[in-house]
Amino acid sequence: xxxxRDRPGAPGDRDQSPDGRxxxxxxxxxxxxxxxxxxxxxxxxxxxxARKRAGRGSLGSWDEEDRGHDALETIxxxxxxxxPELVPIRHHRMAASPWNYYRGAAAVMAADLASQPHSGLLVxxxxxxxxxxxxxxxxxxxxxxxxxxxxxxxLPGPFEWDVKRFAASLVVAAQENRIKPxxxxxxxxxxxxxxxxxxxxxxxxPELDIWYDGIRADSxxxxxxxxxxxxxxxxxxxxxxxxxxxxxxxxxxSMVQGRPRITQDPPVRVTISDxxxxxxxxxxxxxxxxxxxxxRRSLFDRFTEVDVVxxxxxxxxVGMRVYLVLLEGRTGADPLFLQVKQxxxxxxxxxxxxxxxxxxxxxxxxxKRLVQSATDIFVGWGSLHGRxxxxxxxxxxxxxxxxxxxxxxxxxxxxxxxxxxxxxxxRTGDPVAIDGYIGKGQNxxxxxxxxxxxxxxxxxxxxxxxxxxxxxxAAESLPG
Amino acid sequence: MAVRKIAHPSVDxxxxxxxxxxxxxxxxxxxxxxxxxxxxDPVALLEEQDATREPDLVPVRHGRMMVSPFTFxRGAARIMAADLAGTPVAGLETxxxxxxxxxxxxxxxxxxxxxxxxxxxxxxxLPGPFEYDVKRMAASFEIAAxxxxxxxxDAQAATLASVRAYREAMASFAQMGTxxxxxxxxxxxxxxxxxxxxxxxxxxQEKGAKxQEKADKQAKVPKKAEKRxxxQEKADREKEKAAKxxxxxxxxxxxxxxxxxxxxxxxxxxxxxxxxxxxxxxPPIVVPARDLAATYGLSPDQVVPAIHDQFRAYRATxxxxxxxxxxxxxxVDMAxxxxxxxxVGTRAFIVLLQGRDARDPLFLQVKExxxxxLEPYLRRSRYKxxxxxxxQGQRMMQAASDIYLGWTKGLDVRRHFYWRQLRDMKxxxxxxxxxxxxLTYYxxxxxxxxxxxxxRSGDPVAIAEYLGETDAFDRSxxxxxxxxxxxxxxxxxxxxxxxxSGRLRAVEGV
Lengths: 480, 510
Prior knowledge:
The structure holds two protein chains of two kinds.
Chain A: H1 40-53, H2 71-77, H3 87-95, H4 98-104, H5 106-114, E1 122-125, E2 134-138, E3 144-148, E4 155-158, H6 159-176, H7 181-202, H8 207-212, E5 215-216, H9 217-220, H10 226-242, H11 245-252, E6 253-256, E7 259-262, E8 269-271, H12 274-291, H13 294-300, E9 304-311, E10 322-328, E11 335-343, H14 360-371, E12 380-384, E13 387-393, H15 403-406, H16 410-428, H17 431-438, H18 443-471
Antiparallel strand pairs in A: 1-4, 2-3, 3-5, 6-7, 8-9, 9-10, 10-11, 11-13, 12-13
Chain B: H1 11-24, H2 42-50, H3 58-65, H4 69-75, H5 77-84, E1 93-96, E2 105-109, E3 115-119, E4 126-129, H6 130-147, H7 152-175, H8 178-183, E5 186-187, H9 188-218, H10 223-259, H11 262-269, E6 270-273, E7 276-279, E8 286-288, H12 289-292, H13 300-315, H14 320-326, E9 330-337, E10 348-354, E11 361-369, H15 386-397, E12 406-409, E13 416-421, H16 436-457, H17 460-467, H18 472-500
Antiparallel strand pairs in B: 1-4, 2-3, 3-5, 6-7, 8-9, 9-10, 10-11, 11-13, 12-13
Helix pairs in contact in B: 1-17, 4-6, 6-7, 6-16, 6-18, 7-16, 7-17, 7-18, 9-10
């Protein structure tokens, strides 16, 4: 059982803690019993000292010459562990626009970020904090929470990497929606300033208050102009009702010989053979089941697997194996959808340190729990034929924004995202040190904004290269 | 890997199972409870429990149980387990609380910082017949009502209300989807709304009476009737006033729960010495580690490493992200602290931790778990570690649980412990202050909550089918409760006599 190899509390896991201030000392000693932690002053000083490793101004620089890798090769290298026939679909989706390219090119940006000096102030990174990876979803207590939502690339790393990927995404997304550069710049400033202000607040807050902090749907609405609030509320309510297992059941299934089956929609949803289905259920899901806490395992046992299809989702992750599993509860009309998604190494692992988890699915789920203020009750992991997977609920009132909805309100939305990112980082990193590093003035925000502009241009050039590579036949492309 | 084989019977099969259960235990079979001829000596059962407890605290336990038949009942889960063992059961199993008396329900903060009302004591949790919990809950209402000096009718109404709420809630869970049952909970807003409805309901009744009186006056009623009406009016007005007071008191408890956190606990339990916090010594209730070394035969320099070992073992039982959160706290001090009634004398400790600075405290409670009192009569727990039994049972039953639940073996590895937060907005009803109206409302929410807790692990369709749509089950359990309340009074007298005769030692008022 792969899951059991993730030894909880094993000596050594301390050393890789993303919490910068607990890394010293004997790996066997429980951290909470160490000598008094650094005082606030010392922590703040350590943040200021980090400017020696990477000055705030240097965060704004970008030079293509120093990136140390070839963007196109980096993209193609990722295809090795993917389903070969889906790779052309990935290229096709990424070639659609610079924005789509950006979403699919986390590996390129990881290499780019790693080519520059960084602060060394570690947090659990989301790893792919672009603006559309913020969204609403239902918590275990059925609140609607605004949070980060994609953790395929999560890993401990320097906090500014998430901030940079977030900031640049605002510029790229703005271009996609023909928003004036000045307004894109305003959104970047709003988002990064929100991050900075929030981090300053966390620097003064008790640990548990940080841990429990979060943004609910009702307070998210307050980020928008009063005139917009009605529209946003209606949008959320509509989606909330539709995007549930019952909604998905109505939309994605049909009755075949008295049994519900997930309908096909190649290449987005394709049937897999009964043997493959049985393999998935008997091995992958059986292993996954053991990664659930006992109470949730007993809940899971109230459901039976009914049907499994292979899915194609997203942009960057196209080609990774994704399955959609339909389960039925014990009463009629009681469906539950789980999504099983292949996980490889995080794109940052080649550049900083490998994950301490020996199952990539475990890395994703544990990172997700560290970053999110509350996490889906059905997350877990498993493996099959030497590949790792994680499992989560599909459409549990998940509401993902669309660019056309947020584009006219980019600064407002960026503010909510910036605060959320700060909260995510304060949970695992040291908010006092980060606040000390960022400081009071505009230096940090201005540098990040400069980087975001330059990197958006770089992204455009990289996108153009992919497009011409496809035209030249160097990369396959197929609509889907 | 073993392929899991889990039966998934149809709804009709499950209903049939519920109906068949009536052959094993008719609804009326729960009535007419009588003590078994070979019933063990209740005092002896308590003595048996005392044997494994901290000797200096055993008299404190007795003292607390001596206060009234109600406090005696709270401490006598072991006795009732023996009595329940002989009662008829339908054979429908759920995860049991094992000690579902009314004071073991309460409010606490969920992981998403909402005040929830739920079952909150799982020392005796074990899978078993659902009736055991219902009976222990229902009898607790009868006993509490008597303790408050209620009329027979008022006591019966409260008891009946708890069972009826259980039955009706189970019927609604039988209709619900699997995930909807899992997510069902009772939060602060719903509680406040419920309390307000009850209070205004009482006021409406009073207004209705006034109208009637006006009409009577117009009809020129004789003087005698007028006098009676005036008397009635006065009584109604008092009732309304009492309802309002009770409502305010309930809302106050909810409001107060929000202030009950580690910082508040620190102001009560901590003191600053040389700029550092430590736990204040208040023997025998709170005895800090520095004074405990002698009790456990450890030298002071052995105590600290021993605590560190315990703490490390506890950390390992937490979910990855919560372990990470705990690492942000450092150990400051620990103490033995007496809690509850029935569990007094089992080892219970508090641990003071500190986060970013001295103003960021976190108190954890470490409580000894022994075998469930139900284990001799049902089966042994499948958990070798009783602390784990408690935590897993709690997670199975509660809508949401404390993020800091964990378990360890003690220094003496035969002793098992579970860990939780000491004060996380915990609030409990003051049953002794309740008027009949309030107790009946409280009975309804306890009944609903117990049904929800059972529906998570048991089969709500089968149980609801067994319970049926009439009040036969409610009346049956109420009859049991009245008889058991009588028995409890007899046991209480025997217990008090045992103290008087010197067989048991008791210290009162501690």
